[in-house]
Structure formats: structure tokens, C-alpha cells
Amino acid sequence: MTKDGDALAFRRRRETELKHGRVAMLACMGYITPEYFKFPGYCATDLSFADIPNGLAALSKVPGAGWLQIFLFIGTIEKWFYKYDASRAPGDFENGGVLGAPNGSRMVDGPAKTRKLNAELANGRLAMMAIIGMFFQDGLTGQAWADWSYFHDSPLRG
Question: Which residues contact 56 (CB under 8 A, 6 or more apart)?
Fold first, then answer.
């Protein structure tokens, strides 16, 4: 992928990998968390958070206005809060501190920072594989966290 020595193309790939990894890590947490915790109250006028199923089934239950709010929030963060700056390292945003928290914190340059950034890349790669596996299992079994012993029609069974 880098045989041509194009530094700009490599930088773009690294930025994309970081962004996809961060989104995948959040998606994995979003898949796991509702199994243990749901917000009290209502998502919409007559739809409580407790009534929203886990996993892919939630896509059809959340109203369109809810999805619009989610996309507007993400777009706002992407466009105005975490602005692209070519002078900074890929994935390093002025407003984002350690773990992306907007608290002005910074990691000190050195081997510890390099180790943590490499860990973020590795964890992001793992999360990308994990969320695809979760989607596959949910699509195959119809449950976000299915017990495979109850799914007898799996083509993966011998």
C-alpha cells in the first residue's frame, strides 16, 4: 500500500484507519452497553428506551427524527469541533485531549505516547473486526447476543 512512497496517500489512509477504528470502538460499546444498561425515560413520545431492542433490530424501531438528531450531532462534531488541521498528526485534533475528551489534556511526547497511539491503532483494527462479527451474528441469529446452542439452523454447524 505504500510502495509508491506517496506520503500524502499514506497520511490519508492512516487518518481513515484511525477514524474507522474509533467509530468501530464506539459501535462495539454501543452494541454491548444496552445488554446491561438502558436509559430511563422515553426516546420518543410513546417509545421508551426499554422498548428499543438491542442490535440491528433497533434500526427499525428508532423514529426518523431520532436518526436525524444522531446524524446532525455527529456532523456537528465532525465539521466544527474536530476540525482537520494538516499541520497536526493524523487523528490529532486541537480540541480533543486524551481519549478525545475536550478537556485540554495532552499526552507528553515520548515512548509512552507512541505506545498508546500504537495501541489505539491495534484496538481500532480489532474493533473493526469485532463489530462486523457482531453484525454477522445478529443478522444470522436475529439476536444481538445469541446463545449459539439455541440456533440449530446455522450453516456453521456440522
Answer: 135, 138, 139, 144
Write out pLDDT tens, residues 63-102: 888 889 999 998 888 888 777 778 877 777 777 776 666 6
Q: What are phi and psi of 42, to 5 degrees?
A: -120, 140
Question: Please, which residues bridge with residue 122 across strands?
Answer: none
> b vs e for 26-39, b when ≥16 Cβ sit within 10 Å of the residue's Cβ?
ebbeebeebeeeee
User: Tell me, what's the pLDDT at 72?
Assistant: 94
The string of DSSP letters for 103-125 reads: S---PPSSHHHHHHHHHHHHHHH
Side-chain-facing half-sphere of 118: CA atoms under 13 Å: 6
Q: Is the dihedral of CA 19, 91, 95, 80 positive or negative?
A: negative
What is this structure's pTM? 0.80
- The residue type of 22 is R
